[in-house]
Design brief:
single chain, mainly beta, four-stranded antiparallel β-sheet, globular
Length: 386
Amino acid sequence: MSQTQINQLTANVNQLTGKVVDGKAEIADAISEKGVAALGTDSFVTLAAKIRQLPTGTRRPYLYSVLPTNYATYDVARAKAGEYAIFAGGRDQAGTGQYTVEAISPDLTMVTLPDITSTYVSGGSVGSYALFAPDGTLSNKIEAYNSDLTKVTVPVLSQTKHNVSEGASVGDYVLFGGGWTTAYVATVNAYNSSLVRSTPTALKTARIQMGGVGNGEYALFIGGDNANGVSGTVDAYNSSLVRSNPITVLARRKVDAVKFNDKVIISGGLISSSVVSERSDTVEILDQSLVKTTMTILKGTSKDIVTKTAVIGEFLLMVTESSVPTLESIKIDVFNSAMVRLPIELYASDYISKRTFLSVGDHAMLYGGKLDSSNLTSRVDVFKID
């Protein structure tokens, strides 16, 4: 073979290789657009596996309805009682705590319930009960509603306090932890599905403003704040109510935490004890073994972000609130089970801050909130899957 023929063959091979590389890049881009992250440098075997991960059909979440609520409130507590979503307390336009409670049925009927006795509460669920613990009001009282929407009597907390965490569930229990009396406290109370109270081992460190969530294996209290500043501590309680502290996370308070399939998604929160504008744009993901991965996937700047999340079907919905009411600030990001943001256009009914997000059955509900500094809203956006 002559040198000329060798050169031509080499050129043909290089051209073919370039076309293969370009083709793989196009395939990878198409896969990524459908919600599964892929790279042009992936092997063909890897690309084939990712194609098999692509969702079939055309299921996607959409804004199903915008319903009037009975109250105009914000920063409302949330919990589930059977098939009902229950929203309790919150603040009025003047920032005054409210005692009102309403439930939303599976057919989206609004039901007014007996008032709570503490104006600010944190919610949790166990069995067929929705429970509310004192958040902003010093108290030892737990308020509870059953799936018949009847208010029931529950044993009081072992300690009078406020700033109690949102409830974290595991097995047959919901746990409420931490709080404040005249100092930070570490006590934890557990309620089983018969509403019998027990007192597990206290938190590793006393603190307030923790995220509370269950991942199926553990009830988790995440982050928080105490005299030493914001915390990255995670207290994990198993179904026997034994505590461990297997990991730490980014130090922040008032995080949003939600169970998504076999993962816990931790987002938002404040990274300062005193500066309310210092917010986090980091998302941390904990698997059932509490192995952590980290993503930065939020919109806006890290100092101007609040997130609220809810799960509906195979999708995670994430509302990112910012102080600037733009079209982008009312967009709801949609993620698949691999935590890949999907190219789905989904928007809330209006720019509204300080809302409460809760999933029950086939619905995700974005409740209440502030339209601006002078006006609240009495509405709930209801999302379903088409």
